[in-house]
Structure prediction request, 617 residues.
Amino acid sequence: MKKKKLISGLLCLAMTATLLGGCAGQKTTEETADGKEKVTIALWGNQLLEHYTEYLCDSFPDVEFEFTLATNSTDFYRFLNDHDDLPDILTVRRFSLKDAVLLKDMLYDLGDTELASTFYGTYLDHYTYDDGTVNWLPTCAEVDSLIINETLFDEYQVEIPTDYASFISACEAFEEVGIRGFVSDFASDYTCMETLQGFAISSLLSMEGREWRQKYESGATNQLSEEVWLPVFEKFFDVKDGIGLGTEDAQMVNRDPKDLFIEGKAAMYRGTGADIITFPGRGEDKVLLMPYFGDTQEENWFLTYPTFQIAASKKAMKDPKREELILDIMEAMLGQEGQNHISYGKNMVPYNKNVTLELLPELENLNPYIDENKMYIRLASNDMFRVSQSVVQKILNGELTTPEAALADFNTQLEQADASDEKVAHIDNAYANEFTQKHGNQAASAIFNTIREENGVDLMFGQSCYVASDIYAGDYTQKDLSYLCKNDGGYPVIVTLTGDQVYRLVESTLALAGNRGSICNDSTMYVSSGFEMDLSKNEENGYVLNGLTVEGKELDRSAQFSVLIYSDRDWYLPVILEKIGCEEFNADIPNCNQYLYKRLVEDGGQLAEPTDYLKLR
Prediction:
């Protein structure tokens, strides 16, 4: 086993600099000019910008972290690996061994580390290949099941369900008084997949179900077993008919069921522990997270999935001292304090033995299920997301009318490729996705300049880490192009601002803390397009704005500008717009990748040239 060293011992190490590969020679070495060791981490989602990145920076002051926001798919790392450009530490939420197997030889084997030994064997089995290799480890679990409004049940004297039959009875009772018994956002692929599996967990965890899953995850089969999966579809049809799900439900997007719930128009919906915090009924209501109900109470299960999985590039671990440093960083990410920064809402459950996470009172009914290990980890391959959505949508829309037809359609779609390997674009010039004081982030600048030109706005302002990789010179498939910008979490909006408000936009953003748009270091700095920023940096105050210019001339505070903002729309944008006194924005515009697709594919053009948009003193 590899021995863990104290963080304080590692911070004083001087390490040999070697070139980062895969970036056409444009990136700097593993050691920065001030002697800090550079470590690249791809973050699965912008949630980690709130507290987690700052925690890592504070824990390792002698490390220069380079953070990017990765597309939430192991195939994104396949794309990076094709260019010999894997980050040092990888994270992903949507995960299955089946999807990750292509990366197996490129990733570090954690199987014999002390870090892996901290996990319960039951959970570690889901990450172990037949030869014993363990590349990925899970952080704490998001619990995904049924959220019920207990107050609403009491008001209408409906008994709280304890099993599947009483769940259906409760739904029928609420429907009789004009309240939806159960709703969910079936327009979302994850909801289709999780409800399909959640209501039939006992079938999926039968001996035959476990054997089938092992074959599927190992790549031995790409078809659903009739013995295991026909009962799954039979149960879903029963749920559909018992609740009365239909076309209207198939069209529900993420906020629709939550809005019904907080208005008292729905008694139950599929949700997570995080949703209990964000959407707690009508305000004073008592809400609970309940399991997916089985035919008996003994067959009730909670569905879980790790907040994200973590792995390390084998290439990053070649130097023994660097190997120890990265293992220490991973230990900090997966340890007690690290997981506290993930589960600060007290809504998650640990998979490892040495971590204890406090639960909200609304989640305390989880404890018996945790003790009995009745926490099912979802099967979440890319194909499962894609095909579950298609098949469940067809069921709800009446296009598939029997469980047998649904099973057959699912297997047919599993045989079909997800996307074409056809090359649709060629990019001539490569740009490095890293921050330098002289040029800022040139990859992000090229992309933001392109988006601004395509949209026609005067200015653009966005966080550089939403550009997820280098821009590589060469051919791109449609899927590869989609990896240039992160779209799940970052959405563009257009606002009309005075020059004075543009100043306040930049100043307020630089001062923002504990938010999904927060800046923790240079790699999470914002990029400007159409104007330049003059900033100072110091340890006490972080980043301070000195001035803004347009083509070298001071930005006119009295002028009016159309501005495209690209960052988190739900957490960052409301806070910033309030601070600058802007009440309206237009979100009905294409996502950033659609602008890039138009420029590179439809118009056959090239990315705009990057600009030196930043002076950092």
About this structure: The two ends are 45 Å apart (CA to CA). The longest strand covers residues 141-149.
